[in-house]
Design a protein that fits this description.
Chain lengths: 210, 289
């Protein structure tokens, strides 16, 4: 006997795959169901895994004894966000938003500078006079980075030397898009394989073998 | 036959051929060879050098939509970590299913080994917050995860004494879809110095090569191909794992079997690209006559 969950899973998979033939109500039903379920799951998960253990439990069980009073700040900020639904004091929601934007700007600023710009720039400063085949590879890297940067320089018309270098940049970009396309095909085929494997091995085969 | 008509072939015919190409190896696996590459071997070699004194974080940063690519990767990596008796701290930062993926992969693998929960491994579950969680874990992992996935307090678990914060962590492995894997590489690695390895979906693999080259990641497993390479290394290195992957249910779900599908479908797609270009140039030539 195949569990009902597998039947639901299989039928919803077929509903989604039916879009390949053409748009239809079965596909739209499965799509809406998926969106709704995802949102409900997200709310429940955040409540169960973050709000309860990190905020509600300490407030309920530890208030007055070993309580971390700093927790009041994120709790208040979270509540303030919902003030936007009360028109008279909706402006107060902006206080919480300002703190969130400020915090994540701070985190992201350092992250981008320290984790992307500096290491990536450092990785482009490469030796080109020694190292044999590596030196050749390094030259290609430097030409690629330089020409692609020139391609994205829009303050001058791409004519003459600038135009020629930016054309080299286009070639590098095309090669990178090709690699991305290849990987994207591989990812999408994996998804198709996952669904087919489920339909064949988990649904149809046990059904046939009884 | 009018060549121009061939240029406007119904896309559903292509879908059917791709479907047939994908179904055949699922019904009858072919077993095409897999050759491991350097970015994948780097993770295998790093894990080989570790033992019970090391603690590794495995972050499940993906959901059901990436299961076919990342579940085989998770299975192979967890098996390798447990074989080496490394302490494994599992967590999830991807909201839509990371928690469930972590639970199901752990449940599948832990029974194969003699492991004690809270001593050899722990599942800390999902935590909302992304970068804020990552930054806070540098101070105390138990503070961020006061209870595990089932609500048990983590502070008293023996494994947490070996994984107090990033300074105790020998390696961080993120199995990622989307941007969370990037955060481990561009936030945690540069700011806290933890070696990071990412196993990602194939669609995100190209951007991770930039982090790999810059030394912000020590290894990279890209999509199903990366997973199949890791399986190959593991099967070559451990006879017990080879036997596990010979079991029919493991064989069907393995990345190695999945690569048969990849190879056949890629041949079909390449054939269509060549076919489309030949017809395009032939009709253009006809038009210019």
């Amino acid at each position: 006997m195949i569990p009902i969950g597998i039947w639901v899973n299989a039928l919803l998979t077929l509903c989604i795959l039916s879009f390949l033939y053409k748009d239809n109500p079965f596909f739209r039903f499965a799509e809406s169901l998926f969106a709704g379920l995802s949102l409900g799951y997200y709310i429940g998960l955040t409540m169960q895994n973050t709000l309860r253990p990190n905020l509600l439990n300490p407030v309920i069980h530890e208030f007055g004894v070993n309580f971390n009073y700093l927790l009041i700040i994120p709790a208040a900020l979270g509540i303030l966000l919902y003030f936007r639904y009360i028109p008279r004091i909706s402006w107060m929601a902006r206080i919480a938003l300002a703190v969130y934007v400020g915090y994540y700007s701070g985190v992201t600023l350092v992250q981008k500078l320290h984790g992307e710009i500096l290491p990536q720039a450092r990785d482009t400063v490469l030796p080109v006079t020694h190292g044999g085949a590596n030196a050749l590879w390094n030259i290609i890297m430097i030409i690629g980075v330089f020409s692609v940067l020139i391609y994205f320089y829009f303050s001058a018309e791409h004519k003459g030397a600038l135009g020629r270098v930016s054309r080299v940049g286009i070639w590098f970009l095309m090669i990178s898009f090709g690699a991305s396309f290849g990987y994207t095909v591989m990812a999408r085929v994996s998804l198709l394989m996952g669904r087919f494997s489920f339909l064949v091995n988990t649904w149809i085969r046990p059904m046939i073998s009884g | 036959m009018n060549l121009k008509k061939m240029l406007f072939i119904d896309r559903r015919i292509i879908y059917l051929l791709v479907a047939a190409g994908a179904l055949y190896p699922i019904i009858r696996p072919i077993g095409l060879p897999v050759i491991p590459t350097k970015p994948v071997a780097a993770l295998y070699d790093a894990v080989e050098k570790m033992g019970p004194e090391n603690a590794v974080i495995v972050s499940f940063d993906y959901g059901p939509s990436s299961e076919p690519e990342l579940n085989p990767m998770a299975g192979a990596i967890l098996r390798h970590l447990f074989l080496r008796k490394i302490k494994v701290v599992v967590l999830a930062l991807f909201p839509l299913g990371g928690n469930e993926e972590a639970k199901s992969e752990l449940n599948k693998v832990v029974d194969e080994y003699d492991l004690q929960y809270g001593v050899d491994y722990v599942n800390l579950g999902y935590k909302e917050g992304g970068q804020a969680v990552m930054k806070r874990m540098a101070i105390s992992i138990a503070d961020v995860f006061p209870v595990d996935v089932d609500g048990r307090p983590t502070a008293d678990m023996p494994i947490m004494a070996q994984a107090k914060n990033y300074s105790d962590i020998s390696l961080l492995i993120s199995l990622a879809t989307g941007i969370i894997g990037e955060w481990w590489a561009n936030l945690v690695n540069p700011q806290f110095g933890v070696p990071v390895s990412v196993g990602c979906t194939a669609v995100s693999a190209p951007k991770y090569y930039a982090y790999l080259r810059a030394g912000q990641m020590m290894s990279l497993l890209g999509g199903l191909k990366g997973a199949s390479e890791y399986e190959k290394l593991l099967k070559d290195g451990y006879a017990s794992v080879r036997q596990t992957y010979e079991k029919p249910e493991e064989k069907k779900a393995s990345a190695t079997t999945g690569m048969d599908v990849q190879s056949i479908v890629h041949v079909i797609i390449i054939a269509f690209i060549v076919f489309g270009n030949v017809i395009f140039f032939a009709t253009r030539k006809e038009g210019s006559k």
